[in-house]
Amino acid sequence: MSKEYSVSPDGEKFPLPGKDEYAKEYKRLKAKVARQRKLNREIVVVMGVGFVGVAMAAVIADTVDKKGKSNKFVIGMQRPSVRSYWKIPVLDKGISPVISEDEELAPMIERCVLEKKTLSSTFVYDVLSLADVVVVDIQCDYHKNSLGDVYDGHADMMPLEDSLAIMAEYISPDALVLIETTVAPGTTEQIAYPIMKKVFKQRGIKKDPLLAHSFERVMPGRDYVASIRDFWRVCSGINKKSRDRVVKFLNDVLNTEDYPLTVLDKPIESETAKIVENSFRATMLAFLDEWSLFAERNGVDLVKVIEAIKVRPTHSNIIFPGPGIGGYCLPKDGGLGVWAYKHIHGFEDEIFKMTPLAININDTRSLHIGQLTRDALRNMGRPIAAAEILLLGASYREDVGDTRYSGSELIVRKLTEMGAEMRVHDPYLNHWWEFEKQDTYPAPGHSLERFFRNQEKLKELKIQDDIKSALKGTDAVIFAVRHEHYMDLDPDKVIKMVGNACAVIDCFGILDDNKIRRYFELGCEVKGLGRGHIRRIKDEVRLKKLKKKS
Ligand SMILES: NC(=O)c1ccc[n+]([C@@H]2O[C@H](COP(=O)([O-])OP(=O)(O)OC[C@H]3O[C@@H](n4cnc5c(N)ncnc54)[C@H](O)[C@@H]3O)[C@@H](O)[C@H]2O)c1
Fold it and tell me: Are 90 and 392 within 8 A, CB to CB?
């Protein structure tokens, strides 16, 4: 039989382990763990070395006691799947499988793996039998069947349910299982507990599993590690023993002196805290979508309106919504709550109105850019069909290379559907997997491609790293993300690089009035999300030109 390989993003091929390698790997781990126990180190297994698991594993492995001695030994556990196995050999070399803008992450992983020898990784589930603590960082997705209708979807509980059953088969009854995954509220007590209890019974274990929940607030970007270690945490346990264990563990590994823990009575409360926290933010952003349209149609600059409101301390966290609200969490977390109400707790009425509506609005907000671009080009006498359009920024937020559910993806898909030829520039990215691998990423059948026509050619879409050649000859430039590289771009220089006047679309309050004015003076057409005052600037420039002529 031919060997199967898992290929890392930079193209290195790793053969998947064969059947005979499992026993060998477990033997190796047992010997390693025995040595670590002699050093009085607690053994922690982190399940799922994805975006969250990698950084959490590093933070735990870097922990020292009051005397400055390492007191944890961490093993990252990852399924040996074609998609993810590569993360294990990469991590074992002391290299982070997650590329981050945070300068702390890579040296931290290298230090823990190669110098401190407190971080390792494996593909065998048997490792769970060696753990004092198991930290669960595997995904729990929410699958949407339609664009803009979160009710038409479901929580994908399978990866989590499967791993809970596997954990219960292997772990010692005294091991603490800490679920960090963002879950549908009720999961720890009503899904995890019964699954694990049943398996414990089959193993003849009378004790209750020790289960706790504490959600992650990790953020991509320059403070990725600090957003785990130096940030406030909420936690809970299913009983007193679990609660005491999770409090001790988090006090050990996180900077709880400066960022104290909040301990809630029950897991459903900490699970709900995560969902409400993210739904609050999603709702605040979604509510501004209608005011953004109001602003565009009535000569109002929403950017200035928001700045004016922000001055008031009670309203200081109001923010401009940009072209759609992306990232892994905000588009799905409210859906987990809505789903739980019916499918875990058994209610049939639909109490949720704002939470799903906010997600639906956010999920479709960026489609409006299609209209703005079409209108700007039309005002210049150019059709959108076959127009060359450059998108500046693919990430879902500024100054990170993270494209998960970014508004930019929908902008590209919508404009492609309308016949445009898209180009993309993003200084933080080399690949945009949502397009390059749209048949299989994020999973087969789950690409947003399915909601649009005419998407096949987008597999060829490459991120350009030279802004000068990206701009050359384009019909329209879309400022989509507030990357620092785009904030100070000078209109004269941009148009020089384009070679001609073009349409300019501002999705994120990136252009100030002077720049907007200058683009008009250079013969461009400008439109902006929530920026109805642009029309006024256009009229001023036109009047000035007329006066000059007469
Ligand atoms: N990414 C964020 O910014 C963020 C922020 C806060 C909370 N969260 C939450 O953290 C959780 C994890 O998110 P993520 O971004 O790390 O996801 P991810 O998809 O990057 O990582 C999940 C990892 O778990 C692995 N996995 C799945 N099943 C497994 C199993 N049975 N055994 C071992 N490994 C398994 C996957 O292969 C993958 O590597 C999610 O619930 C997410 O909502 C994420």
Answer: no
